[in-house]
Amino acid sequence: MKIFYGIQGTGNGHITRGRIMARELQAANLEVNYLFTGRPQDKFFAMEVFNGHQWREGLTFATNKGKINHLKTVLQSKPLNFLKDIRQLDLSAYDLVICDFEPITAWAARRQNKKTVGICHQYAFQHDIPRAGNDPVSEIVLKKFAPVDLSIGLHWHHFDQPILPPVIETPFIPERIQKNKIVVYLPFEDQQHIIQLFARFKNFEFFIYSPEASPSHHAHIHCKPLSLTGFQQDLSDCAGIICNAGFELASEALQLGKKILVKPVHAQMEQASNAAALSLLGYGQMMQTVDARRIEPWLYETKAIRVTYPNTAKHLVQWIKDGMPPVEQSWCNQIWSEVNITPVELS
């Protein structure tokens, strides 16, 4: 079987999931070619697992100070280039197209009548799951951005729906957690404002990651550029993470048993819904703005939840090899039965 796999690269979560799927697909001896869009080509990193890949500009969302800017999004989009890329992407040699919310792949496959399977968190919103911040624009984006023939939605809990657990790494749990170490990843916020805010909490060490690392003049604040290895090392032995409400990073934090404080990107329904789900499940806390009054009590919180998820990627690859039978609740329930939830003491 020859597979074409399109992955949205606007955030790192889709790429992280893609790396895990790529390893399982390779282990199953399936031939896969990849396409990435959503950010400049030179901003991708740690892409070796994809064994060479295509790149197109694609579509992305413009943000300003932690909020989606719809006008700027429209103005910076290049619809003629986007349509050209759809027309020129030749999928005739492939038996299956997989889409991780990547629009060029989805629309090219639809144009060429190629069977398309969507695997990502966004497709979970086709089911009855917690939602917040609904608006007509968000609904259109979810339905029309990357349409597929068959979708597999991913979430932290099943909510009695035919969805699956996150595609996530099996964690390495360090023997010792640094209880005052906090990882911060708020790339859509003003980084100087972030540094100034955390400067007041001198009893904690903050490791702030961003696409463009700002200099820090505070001994307890460490500003770092994006790095797969460095970020995973800091995440593994920290006590908690403060981040936007993206799906994949929160999944990693849950798997590692970290306390979580999320600040959803404004005017982004998916992130608002993720934050609501974390609160509903008791897996994390949320704040609507980056607010020191919300951050301070959370810093001194000594309890967290570890949710150990199964190897969902392996289940998915086997499902693909089995011919992609109809997604039945019994199959989903079997995979969810492998989830283990345990309390964690951080003191």
Total tally of structural domains: 2
* Helix content percent band: 25-40%
* Distance between the first and last residues' Cα: 50 Å
Strand order of the largest sheet: 3-2-1-6-7-8
Largest sheet: 6 strands, parallel
Per CATH, the superfamily of the largest domain is Glycogen Phosphorylase B
Radius of gyration: 20 Å
CATH-derived architecture of the largest domain: 3-Layer(aba) Sandwich
> Could you tell me the number of beta strands?
16
Tell me the CATH topology of the largest domain: Rossmann fold
Number of helices: 12
Indicate the proportion of strand residues: 15-25%
Which quaternary structure do these chains form?
single chain
Spans of at least 5 consecutive residues with low confidence: none
CATH class of the largest domain: Alpha Beta
Helix/strand class: alpha/beta
Shape: globular
- Following the backbone from N to C, one meets helices and strands in this order, namely EHEEEEHHEHEHEEHEEHEHEHEHEHHE
Keywords:
12 helices, Rossmann fold, alpha/beta, globular, 6-stranded parallel beta sheet
Topology:
Layout: E1 2-8, H1 12-27, E2 31-37, E3 54-55, E4 63-64, E5 67-68, H2 70-76, H3 79-88, E6 96-100, H4 103-111, E7 116-120, H5 136-144, E8 150-153, E9 178-185, H6 191-198, E10 205-210, E11 221-225, H7 228-237, E12 238-243, H8 247-256, E13 259-262, H9 269-281, E14 285-286, H10 292-299, E15 303-308, H11 312-321, H12 329-336, E16 340-345
Parallel strand pairs: 1-2, 1-6, 2-3, 6-7, 7-8, 9-10, 9-12, 10-11, 12-13, 13-14
Antiparallel strand pairs: 4-5, 15-16
Helix pairs in contact: 3-4
